[in-house]
Amino acid sequence: MKNRPYTLTIAGFDPSGGAGLMADVKTFESLKCYGLAVQTANTVQNDIKLIACQWIDISIIQGQLELLFERFVIDFVKIGIVKNWEILNEIIDILLDKNSSIKIILDPVLRSSSDFEFHSRSSKQESVNENYFEEILKKIYLLTPNYQEIEKLYTDRSIEETIKHISGVTNLFLKGGHRKEAIGKDELFTSTGKYFILNPKEEKVFSEKHGSGCVLSSAITAYLAHGFPLLKSCFRAKRYTEKVLSSNKSLLGYHKM
């Protein structure tokens, strides 16, 4: 019997199980990985409403990471919501200290589907935040924003300029679920200058799901952990996510292969 690779999610806890840690671990389990999890936030929410977010102290996050790395070989990690770019940069440095070759898949969740703002920004902090984000880009393997998120990463640049800048530093998978046109068309921009379009399997619009972005990013992480190259991992993850989207008509999807 083949051992399952250990995959780690660092993200928030969603009591509904549709997003965050629970969605990630469900995805890992379904795709035959063993999911490990470190919590960054405790949220008060269901599948349609998020009213509060309590952040976990960095010292607790660090302690959990240190114990996990003592016990398990972790080569792939997916990161979701974190309090701010500064804390995220600290977390990434901890990961790289434990495993210098670890591949980090960052899903930059800036706002919940119910419009709860996770990263509050002030004009005084804007340049500082951008500096931390620039450092983060150099350390991660893949960034997976949707259209709403990529627009907010560099407010003084167009989407095209932002894409060119990010893909010049690291791999970029632009999720198409929030596109104004061609909904569901995803795009992969590699750091080596290659470009791929991943269209949905069917023309019909799949049923909307709470946490679908979390599922897609964690599915990419799982396939990478199984040794698939980046493009194939993204393609397979897209198909897996489509199965979750079409699993039922509620906002909470079912996970099964």
Automatic annotation (TrEMBL):
Domain Pyridoxamine kinase/Phosphomethylpyrimidine kinase: 14-249
Listed SUPFAM superfamilies: Ribokinase-like
Listed GO biological process terms: thiamine biosynthetic process
A Pfam family that the UniProt record links to this protein: Phos_pyr_kin
Enzyme nomenclature, EC number: 2.7.1.49
Any single Gene Ontology cellular-component annotation: cytosol
Pathway assignment: Cofactor biosynthesis; thiamine diphosphate biosynthesis
Gene3D superfamilies: 3.40.1190.20
Top-level lineage group: Bacteria
Enzyme class name: transferase
Entry keyword set: Kinase, Transferase
Single GO term (MF): phosphomethylpyrimidine kinase activity
Protein name stated in the entry: hydroxymethylpyrimidine kinase
Organism: Aquimarina aggregata
Lineage summary: Bacteria, Pseudomonadati, Bacteroidota, Flavobacteriia, Flavobacteriales
